[in-house]
């Protein structure tokens, strides 16, 4: 029997996809197919027996919509958020938090075993949050119109339909007041929201950043114009909110899904925000990357620091360093830290942050890690000069270039600390690093071995997981 769109089936959820969708198979009896036909079904949890409607059919799998839970899984919870099902953000809201941590641990372990070839690796439990709500320090709220009125909130899953909602349970409560003030300003002064289809209207997004340690707030309104009519009135309203430190505009007149444009116009304050991670203070401009979950960032960086095993004597490289967060965190316990990052503005922030914290044992380079490091390496004359004690990498989802991995191993570091936001590319890179036999002269051959792995939950209720890995050099 063929699986058809719009047909209903009863399935038992047996597994979870990497994105956190439940996977259930349409059984043999109904289809005459030996292995069954897998359906990916959002909002379901392993152990659920559910009635699902097929919404999309591909050759070997399909997508289903949950119609009814027939027998709930013991790990199912009622989502706390009233708009959990519509929202494209938190895909795991039907799962107990404990189960999410287990799911993420398993995901990392499976990838390291299957893709990384690390057959016997045991991954410890994901480090989670005590209270996994209101953790995000950054929100990008889309604005649009709905039946003539202004709506602001979030995009429905896989669409650009805006669901009007002021509160988001993973964002600070103050965001509601900010969104309300912006909406009422727009209504009073007839400032139209952006219309994505036609490219008309003005207000596209509100970027809100809150410094969890400092209490500072930055609001940056992304507009489809060169200026905002009655901008002073907006500033006036926002300044009534306690902690408001910077109000600015970001100009984005392109027809694009990219949220921020290049130009920033300051309306009030310094145009950036300050916050702390541990003892280190950071200046963060609207466009710079900054980890969104500050309390778990501290957990992550402490793990990275522990794995780096610094005594104060080491030379350390922090590749993909952003605004220097990990670099400065490590610089307090190292002799010298070099940082490399592709975005020039982030490196400016990094240098400023180093100076602000009196960490003058740091040096930052702008460029691609896979170009900067090999060039630097080529220019050193001796093996001693090329040597680094510890190398930290924290690449974007696509992982590291093999040219970079080759230079890293050639630098003969005692330890490599790999921080990753995508365990599949992490596993691929670990396979490369651990299978490689290195030889850099008189010490003879050596290789790298995975010593420790630690998943950290930076994004509760989503399927993402961050992982820190320690690789140790073994002489052969
Ligand atoms: N370690 C930082 C940033 C990690 S995010 C932190 O924890 O805050 C990854 C960073 O890599 C981003 O800042 C991105 O701009 C940068 N990046 C992306 N591709 C790069 C490349 N090829 N070389 C160097 N940096 C790169």
Automatic annotation (TrEMBL):
Gene3D superfamilies: 2.40.50.1070, Nucleic acid-binding proteins, Vaccinia Virus protein VP39. Belongs to the class I-like SAM-binding methyltransferase superfamily. RNA M5U methyltransferase family. It comes from the Bacteria. Keywords: Methyltransferase, S-adenosyl-L-methionine, Transferase. The lineage of its organism: Bacteria, Bacillati, Bacillota, Clostridia, Lachnospirales. It comes from Anthropogastromicrobium aceti. GO terms for biological process: rRNA base methylation. Its EC number is 2.1.1.190. This is 23S rRNA (Uracil(1939)-C(5))-methyltransferase RlmD. GO terms for molecular function: rRNA (uridine-C5-)-methyltransferase activity. The active site is at 421, 421 (nucleophile).
């Amino acid at each position: 029997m063929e699986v058809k769109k719009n047909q209903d089936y009863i399935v038992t959820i047996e597994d979870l996809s990497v994105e956190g969708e439940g996977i259930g198979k349409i059984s043999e009896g109904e289809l005459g197919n030996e292995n069954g036909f897998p359906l990916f079904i959002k909002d379901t949890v392993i152990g659920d027996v559910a009635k699902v409607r097929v919404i999309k059919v591909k050759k070997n799998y399909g997508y289903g919509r949950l119609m009814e839970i027939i027998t709930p899984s013991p790990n199912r919870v009622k989502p706390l958020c009233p708009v959990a099902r519509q929202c494209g953000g938190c895909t795991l809201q039907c799962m107990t938090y404990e189960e999410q941590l287990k799911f993420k641990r398993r995901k990392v372990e499976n990838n390291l075993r299957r893709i990384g070839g690390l057959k016997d690796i045991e991954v410890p439990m994901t480090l989670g949050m005590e209270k996994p709500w209101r953790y995000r320090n950054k929100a990008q709220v889309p604005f649009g119109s709905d039946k003539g009125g202004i709506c602001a909130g979030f995009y429905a899953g896989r669409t650009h339909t805006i669901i009007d909602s002021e509160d988001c349970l993973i964002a600070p409560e103050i965001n509601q007041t900010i969104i309300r003030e912006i909406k009422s300003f727009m209504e009073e002064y007839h400032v139209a929201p952006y219309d994505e289809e036609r490219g008309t209207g003005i207000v596209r997004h509100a970027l809100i950043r809150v410094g969890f340690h400092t209490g500072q707030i930055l609001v940056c309104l992304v507009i489809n114009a060169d200026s905002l009519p009655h901008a002073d009135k907006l500033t006036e309203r926002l300044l009534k909110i306690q902690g408001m430190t910077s109000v600015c505009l970001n100009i984005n007149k392109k027809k694009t899904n990219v949220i921020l444009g290049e130009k920033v116009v300051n309306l009030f304050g310094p145009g950036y925000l300050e916050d702390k991670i541990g003892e280190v203070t950071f200046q963060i401009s609207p466009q710079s990357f900054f980890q969104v979950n500050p309390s778990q960032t501290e957990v992550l960086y402490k793990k990275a620091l522990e794995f780096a095993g610094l005594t104060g004597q080491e030379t350390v490289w922090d590749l993909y360093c952003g605004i220097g967060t990990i670099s400065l965190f490590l610089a307090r316990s190292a002799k010298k830290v070099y940082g490399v990052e592709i975005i020039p503005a982030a490196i400016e922030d990094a240098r400023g942050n180093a100076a602000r914290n009196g960490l003058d044992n740091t040096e930052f380079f702008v460029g691609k890690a896979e170009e900067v490091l090999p060039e630097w390496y080529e220019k050193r004359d001796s093996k001693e000069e090329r040597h680094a004690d510890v190398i930290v990498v924290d690449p974007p989802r696509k992982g590291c270039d093999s040219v970079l991995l080759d230079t890293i191993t050639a630098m003969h570091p005692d330890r490599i600390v790999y921080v990753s936001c995508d365990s599949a590319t992490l596993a691929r890179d670990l396979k490369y690093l651990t299978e490689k036999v290195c030889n850099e002269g008189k010490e003879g051959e050596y290789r790298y071995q995975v010593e420790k792995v630690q998943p950290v939950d930076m994004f509760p209720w989503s399927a993402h997981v961050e992982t820190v890995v320690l690789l140790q050099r073994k002489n052969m």
